[in-house]
Design a protein that fits this description.
By secondary structure, the chain is of the alpha+beta class. Helices cover 38% and strands 31% of the residues. The chain has a four-stranded antiparallel sheet with strand order 2-3-1-4, covered by helices on one side. α1 packs antiparallel against α3. It is globular and about 35 Å long.
Length: 96
């Protein structure tokens, strides 16, 4: 069964409060068995524009990634992310 991935691109706009989102999101990710593959770090954007931070979290399946995203724990964190950053978020199924 293919893995599931959550991919976020984020530019914090409220750097004083953005760490509250990171803490809440990390706890929810752990609760749903997610593993960070990418969390910030260096990047290049050779084509087009990009937000500042890039995060990829791996889950055992696409369904588990969706359960994480729609969970009450992560939805509480989403409110913090939206209040403290500009961001995009996708859930994708990995290759078999």
């Amino acid at each position: 069964m293919p893995k599931g991935y959550c991919i976020a691109h984020v530019t914090p706009t409220d750097t004083a409060n953005y760490p509250k989102y990171r803490e809440a999101a990390s706890a929810a990710i752990a609760a749903y068995g997610g593993q960070f593959l990418v969390r910030g770090g260096r990047y290049e954007s050779p084509e087009g524009s990009s937000l500042e931070r890039h995060v990829i979290v791996e889950f055992d399946s696409f369904e588990q990634a969706k359960k994480f995203y729609h969970s009450p724990e992560y939805q509480a964190a989403v409110k913090l992310r939206r209040a403290t950053s500009e961001s995009t978020f996708v859930i994708v199924e990995g290759a078999e």
